[in-house]
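In this section we turn from sequence analysis to structure. A common task in structural bioinformatics is to predict how a protein folds when a small molecule is present, because the ligand can shape the pocket around it. The inputs are simple: the amino acid sequence and a SMILES string for the ligand, here pyridoxal-5'-phosphate. Study the lines below before reading on.
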Amino acid sequence: MPVERFAKNELIPSLQARMGGGTRARMGPMEGMINLGAGDPDFNQPEFINKAVYEAMKEGYTHYSFGGDPEFKQAIASYYKKYGVDVDPNTQIVIESGGSQAIFRSFGAILNPGEEILIMDPAYGGYRGPAAYFGATMTRAKLTKGKDGLFRPDMDNIRAAITDKTKAMLICNPDNPCGTVYTEKELKGLAEVAVEKDIVLIADEIYTEFTWGDSVHRPIINLPGMEERTMVLMSFSKTFAWTGCRAGYIIAGPELMRVVNAVPTGICSMPVAFQRAGIKALNEGWDFVDEMKAEYKKRIDFMAPRLSEIEGITCPYPEGAFYLFPDISELGVPSAKFSQDLFVKEKVRCASGSGYGENGEGHIRFALVRPVEDLAEACDRIEKFVKSLPPKAPSAYP
Ligand SMILES: Cc1ncc(COP(=O)(O)O)c(C=O)c1O
């Protein structure tokens, strides 16, 4: 008998298909590989944070923490105030064990089977599984490219994609994979649509700290009519290179937070000692963040123009996050084939644009999680690989 007989409900048998595949093989280290695939920072969590965890345990922070450590929540509220938003730590913050759990809980709080959640195209792939799990349909609004080659929200596409089943719209700002940071005008436009259509706006802001040049991160939750309908998803994973230790949170208006809190996830799942270390990170961790940012900036400054030097590749300069999402459509190679062959032939790992949605086809994503020397070597290999491709002919790649 298939294991589906143990499944929660009738949604599960077709789940694998709708979640976009089975278990993804995890690659261990490989001699000579330059892994620019996953967005796992190559910086280690700083020692003062590691020590803070141990110190907290020695001080006895080893017990249940039902609603999350109040001082940690206060530190989060003080941090978010930097972006002009007043948050009541008691009623507007819930602690999560990372951004992925924040996605899961926010979706679980509002999505009923048959309802729709609208996401952009291209978009980060981690929304697909939770939407499918809750029986919701993920719909897409195509982003369109601006003059600078960056994908941007398109209000006509967004309006056209909203139906009477749409419960929520999700934006990622700053955006992974596109590198776009939403402007004030774009955010106001999105807020107007959310209010007019009376839908929830989920704002994945986990790359808040990573903006480049003149771009600044602006939250959407403090625009008119938005506090009652916005869930902000945040994570320490990228901000403090804290991917393995799991820390994140959701911010929402007090009423909506009652809906979020109705998801029975039990006792706060971020270990108490890490919550104490989180206070230290939010109070004293900014030099470390600045160092990482300076390094990411160096990597972007090197690799974006270098990729554009390769014939057939155009790489826009991102406004935010630490990914490059170059256009490879001139090469006439499907992005999945490009990334697979690049890996097999040159041991450079990247992500295929089609994995981010139909509109991501013709692009590949590089996570800049290696030092410049490695990126230089990767670019040389990419150039060699591109030169080895047959001349553009659609029939060459069925
Ligand atoms: C846009 C976006 N949201 C959420 C996540 C998940 O965050 P976490 O690693 O904290 O689970 C990621 C991770 O890469 C991401 O890029």
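The pocket of pyridoxal-5'-phosphate is lined by residues 39, 98-100, 124, 126, 172, 176, 204, 206, 235, 237, 243, 248 (CB under 6 Å). As an exercise, try to locate the residues that line the pyridoxal-5'-phosphate site and compare them with your own expectations.
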